[in-house]
Amino acid sequence: MRQTAAPTARRADADAVDPRIEQALRYAVAIGAALVLLLPAARAFSAQIGWLPLWLLAMPLTAWWALHRFRLPLRAQDPVAAAAPRRRRAGAQARRRARPAVAGAAAVARAA
After folding, report:
1. Residue 86: inside a domain, yes or no?
2. Does the keyword Membrane apply (predicted)?
3. Is 18 left (phi over 0), alpha (psi -120 to 50) or beta?
4. Residue 55 located in a structural domain
5. Are 56 and 35 in contact (CB under 8 A)?
6. How far apart are CA 102 and CA 47, in angstroms?
7. pTM for the full model?
8. What are the distances in angstroms from CA 73 to CA 69, 76, 91?
9. Total structural domains in the chain?
């Protein structure tokens, strides 16, 4: 007898995100975006902490993405690309050709 409902229920519980943390990260992203867009000083470099947009926008966005376990958004499949998968060429992999010797380089080598 197969039980398929239990693993998906456990998986949904494991994938659940604490709404308080998500709300705080959304708030941090919104504040950081507003600061970067509206204040020219927020787009600058600080000697103490480095590039400010990194800390105001990129780090909260990365934390929010990590909170969702680095899932990528679902992409709509292109029907043409899905219907025609790429094919590999038949045969062996191409090899490099030997480079011909340059006459000038040989003369310089003999003179030295």
Report:
1. no
2. yes
3. beta
4. yes
5. yes
6. 53
7. 0.52
8. 12, 10, 37
9. 1
For the residues of 16-55, what is the DSSP string, one character each?
---HHHHHHHHHHHHHHHHHHHH-GGGGSEETTTEEHHII
- 31: Cβ–Cβ under 8 A, 6 or more apart, which residues? 56
- Residue 101 covered by a domain: no
Residue 55's domain spans which residues? Answer: 16-70
Q: Which two tokens stand for residue 47?
A: 């000697």
Q: How far apart are CA 51 and CA 55, in angstroms?
A: 7
pLDDT in 10s for each residue of the chain, 112 residues: 445 555 555 455 556 888 999 999 999 999 999 999 999 999 999 898 899 999 999 999 999 999 988 876 777 776 665 666 667 778 888 888 888 777 666 666 666 6
Mark 76-112 as b/e (b = at least 16 C-beta within 10 Å).
Answer: eeeeeeeeeeeeeeeeeeeeeeeeeeeeeeeeeeeee
In a domain, 77, yes or no: no
**Selection from 21, 22, 58 nearest residue 42 by Cα:** 58
